[in-house]
Write a structure and sequence with these properties.
With about 350 residues, the chain is α/β, with parallel strands linked by helices. The chain folds into 2 domains: about 1-50, no CATH class; about 85-340, TIM Barrel. About 45% of the residues lie in helices and about 10% in strands. It contains 13 helices and 8 strands. It has helices at about 1-15, 30-35, 40-60, 65-70, 100-115, 135-150, 165-180, 200-210, 230-240, 255-260, 280-290, 305-310, 320-340, and strands spanning about 85-90, 120-125, 155-160, 185, 210-215, 245-250, 265-270, 295. Strands 1-2-3-4-5-6-7-8 form an 8-stranded parallel sheet. It is globular, with a radius of gyration of 26 Å. It binds zinc ion (ZN).
Length: about 350
């Protein structure tokens, strides 16, 4: 019976991809010897054949290529009318961005203009220093302060801190936010954000009502030393429920990231940095609500266009699109912007 079955299925098995079948090593490459399976190999192959057939029947046929059926010009999806776009996650380094700070800003804005992005929120200088010394922190933030002067009507920025240097970080908040133009805090990978050294900085963020943008990743093979996951951020946010946190990159593995932050209501996600995968923004809207999603790109590491596509190609109402592109980050910045615009700014 086994032989009869083998003969009847051999032609089908022969057409399957190599990965679906197991063959004996060093066998002759004749038709008959290729079919010389052991009983165990045959059963494994037959089971995979069943799965393969089921998969094939479940996959709808590819639609014809557009060029075969339609000669009209390609229309890139546009935001709904009247929507302003703010990018909450932009750098002065990475990609091919080079030159002076002024040249970098002008190039970023050239591409932002092309893609209809009105405001960019900058953080960190041209160099990516994972564990900056107090001096390096000042250099990083000085580069951003210089950038702000190039186009103050188009740029905002977050102060870069290293919680391993508490006093230096507190001083940077005073220098760049209280007495300077910056409007939030950026934390990267110096130390996992669930660690206690962050607490004094978060208490200051609460006093000043500053949003905190924390890089997060679920990295395949394990995170870098000091790199936070969305779960780390949930721990931090639970300890500081009045501070508003932005989970940068949604952990890159966005399905896990969305689930991780879902119960912690003082966390927003930024959708920057990953490939423009279909379903990301739709899932985030379903699980978190569009009011907890913030548009960001990670430019120039990622293109503006690829990140815009995540929102523009998603099935969203105009109201949800407006919230993601502008209103949510605007609401997070409202308290600190109001403080800066107040007639007699307090210094505490
Ligand atoms: Zn980034």
């Amino acid at each position: 019976m086994f032989d009869a079955l083998r003969r009847s299925t051999a032609p089908m098995l022969h057409g399957l991809p190599w990965c679906c079948l197991s063959r004996k090593k060093n066998q002759d490459r004749t038709e008959s010897s290729q079919m010389d399976f052991s009983r165990r190999q045959w059963l494994a192959g037959a089971m995979q054949l069943g799965a393969w057939t089921a998969i094939q029947s479940a996959i709808p046929p590819f639609p014809p290529l557009r060029a075969e059926t339609d000669s009209s010009p390609v229309v890139f999806p546009q935001p709904a009318p009247g929507i302003e776009i703010w990018d909450a996650h932009v750098h002065l380094g990475g990609g091919n961005l080079q030159g002076t700070i002024g040249e970098r800003v002008r190039l970023l804005l050239k591409y932002a203009d092309r893609m209809g992005i009105r405001r960019l929120i900058l953080c960190m200088g041209p160099k990516f220093e994972a564990d900056p010394s107090p001096e390096q922190l000042r250099e990083q933030n000085n580069a951003v302060l210089e950038a702000l002067q190039v186009a103050p009507d188009r740029l905002l920025s977050f102060v870069y801190l290293n919680p391993k240097h508490l006093e230096a970080s507190l001083q940077e908040i005073e220098r760049c936010v209280v007495h300077g133009p910056m409007v939030g805090i950026k934390l990267w990978i110096a130390i996992r954000c669930s660690e206690p050294p962050l607490d004094p900085l978060m208490r200051r963020a609460e006093e000043l009502r500053l949003p905190v943008l924390q890089h997060t990743f679920f990295r395949q093979g394990g995170n870098l030393p000091g790199e936070s996951s969305p779960e780390d951020l949930v721990q931090l946010a639970a300890r500081h429920p009045k501070v508003k946190f932005i989970c940068a990159h949604t952990g890159a593995d966005w399905e896990r990231g969305i689930r991780a932050v879902r119960p912690q209501k003082n966390i927003w996600i930024d959708i920057s940095g990953s490939d423009p995968t279909s379903g990301f923004v739709e899932m985030a809207t379903r699980e978190l609500g569009s009011d907890r999603i913030i548009f960001g790109t990670d430019a120039p590491i990622r293109s503006f266009a690829s990140q815009l596509a995540k929102v523009l190609a998603a099935r969203l109402t105009p109201e949800a699109q407006k919230a993601i592109f502008r209103d949510n980050i605007g609401r997070l910045l409202e308290p600190i912007l109001a403080r800066k615009l107040a007639p007699s700014p307090a210094s505490s």
